[in-house]
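Moderator note: this is an archived Q&A kept for reference. The question asked for a predicted structure of one protein chain; the sequence and the answer are reproduced below.
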Amino acid sequence: MQFLHSSKVFKHSLLAVLTLLLSIYMGLLWHYGDEAHLGISGLFILALGMMLYESPKPLKLFPTKLGLFLGAFGVAIALSISAFLLHQQSTYQGSTLHSPLLVSLLRLLPALIGLSLAVLAKGLPGIRYFWREEGLLLAVGLPGVLALFVADISPLTAVFSAKLLAIGGFDIVQEGVTLSLPGGSVIVYYGCSGIESICYLLSLSVLFLIMFPVSGFKRFLAPLVGIVLAFVINSFRVALMAILWAKNDVERFDYWHMGEGSMLFGLAAVIAFSVFYVVVLQSLEKRSTLAASS
């Protein structure tokens, strides 16, 4: 134990294990073809690396026997889950992520990795010491897991998209999740409801709040605005697809539905939220700080 307290080898070993486990996680996302979550996970892992590298105080490790046992047990579970997910993907290619269990395991794997390494590094007090890092790794997947238990918002998306089309002067008829225009109809399924985009902006709001904290009501405004932006921008995408389908423009419909176009709308939501957070919330925070100091 004295060797663990005094040697840099233990610290470098923990960083190596963290890198290995997160690389396995990213590889699983790639194998599952979850490109959108692969991108946002990469952003969160980059932020995690910056936090660890730019920590204002040197990292002092205080491993305990209990912490080593629990941490090693957590790492073993993370590896077992990874092996299970890889087996499922290899056995049932193309349909595995439709299972809520597999989605939950994959989304929460980074949080388990972070918790295990924190306990390995400093025992049970490591959970509190590394709360920001653990919060990042939890936030990257938790919204997606919670969304599995939220009511389908497709009807609400259909209503809002129909309103946008009506404002644009289109002869739109909305019945449930069906949008009908002269020339064709589209159905707003769960995957097109915008719930995925909402989850990503909720995750991004947590990242911003941890990396660039704000105070007061602004902490609650950030995720709220993220939800609204994601929903509204996705509704514009649904309205566009309804127009393209009614015009029998199948090629462009497929592009905005399943192709790169769908990711462009997600990118637009991310950019819009980032601008709001940096320009609006950070400006309000600076004003609040100046007012308090004066």
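Archived answer notes: The mean pLDDT is 88.
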